[in-house]
Design goal:
The protein is α+β, with helices and mostly antiparallel strands. Helix content is 28%, strand content 33%.
């Protein structure tokens, strides 16, 4: 059986292996000291010790309970964007210009550099060990959606808007077509150096990027085609997010052109339909609806998959395996948070 839970110090080695498979494009650090710092920071956030949303980060792991091993990870940054470190993006604008004399009409795409000093919550860092990506188990869904169960249980810890920055297609050498055509020309930096610098200081982007709209027609065809496109490795993640209410709102990453998806926290399907119900002590013997179930034990968050049957307006019956897990973990409350798993 598998559960999503808060990362702990004992997950260090597993998380480092996952980070290496994700590469430099992800949110997970590959240096042991940096990963330990992230885990410690996350533990403080889960414990409610970090009151500043802009500093709170939540690192989740997917644990195989039988093997006692972490096989996946995902992240939530409670607030991405402040006056000291703004959330930056390129707004994609459509513009049509016409000449009545010749009858010529041309549709243009423009990029406008924007920054947000009161930014949204951001989700990221989703990585699942390839050995566990089989569809019947729905572990990808559990790993991605489990964090939304936590957000639904503790909405006050997050912003009203939630975004996901998806990775675009990259060239074989790891470069970005959009950065080569746009960012490099205004900063003089190659993609890798700009990416490294942006992790500690975004001021150079604000100072060097153009304040005027830029016509993408001036870029190469490859660079134009990369704007707002999702890479092969993140298409599955995009589908999962779109199923629960996320949509593309014509904003892309200023470095690589990857699309930004967005949703209102309260309108995310998993959160909007999340119910707090009492779990009956009697197991359901057959059938049921495949669902996500969240609870706390000893103040710690857990989320797993279950089969649920509605017993009445206030209670449900669970499958025998899920009920056994709850009995073993001893939840803090008799009620659990449940929502039907989207297909």
């Amino acid at each position: 059986m598998f559960v999503v839970r808060a990362a702990e110090q004992r997950d260090l080695e597993s998380l480092l292996e996952l980070a290496k498979s994700l590469g430099t494009a992800g949110n997970l650090p590959q240096e042991p000291s940096e990963m330990l710092s992230l885990i410690s920071h996350s533990e403080a956030s889960f414990a409610g010790q970090e009151k500043d949303k802009s500093k709170a980060v939540y690192l989740f792991v997917l644990e195989d309970l039988e093997q006692n091993a972490s096989v996946g990870a995902s992240l939530v940054f409670a607030k991405h964007g402040t006056a000291d470190s703004p959330h930056t993006y390129l707004q994609v604008i459509e513009k049509t210009q016409r000449d009545s004399g010749s009858g010529i009409e041309i549709k243009h795409q423009l990029l406008r550099f924007e920054f947000d000093e009161d930014g949204p919550t951001e989700i990221g860092g989703l990585i699942l060990n390839p050995k566990f990506r089989s569809k019947p188990k729905a572990l990808g869904k559990l790993l991605s959606y489990g964090r939304f169960i936590y957000m639904g249980m503790f909405p006050e810890r997050f912003e009203e808007r939630v975004i996901a920055e998806l990775l675009p297609p990259f060239n074989p050498d790891g470069t970005s077509e959009l950065w080569e055509a746009f960012g490099q020309r205004f900063t003089g930096l190659d993609y890798q150096e700009a990416d490294r610098r942006s992790r500690v200081d975004k001021e150079f982007i604000k100072n060097l990027f153009p304040s005027e709209d830029v016509y993408t027609r001036l870029f190469s065809k490859k660079a134009q085609a990369a704007i707002g496109k999702t890479g092969e490795s993140t298409r599955a993640a995009q589908v999962l997010l779109e199923r629960i209410g996320f949509s593309y709102l014509n904003a892309v990453d200023p470095f690589d052109g990857g699309p930004h998806l967005e949703a209102k926290l309260k309108e995310i399907t998993l959160i909007k339909r999340l119910e707090s119900l009492r779990a009956s002590s009697e197991a359901s013997r057959s059938g049921g609806t495949r669902s996500l179930m969240g609870w706390t034990s000893g103040g710690k968050f857990f989320c797993g998959l279950c089969q649920k049957k509605q017993r009445d307006a206030h209670s449900i019956q669970l499958d025998e395996e899920s009920l056994g897990l709850l009995a073993k973990m001893r939840p803090d409350h008799e009620r659990v948070f449940v929502v039907t798993l989207p297909y």
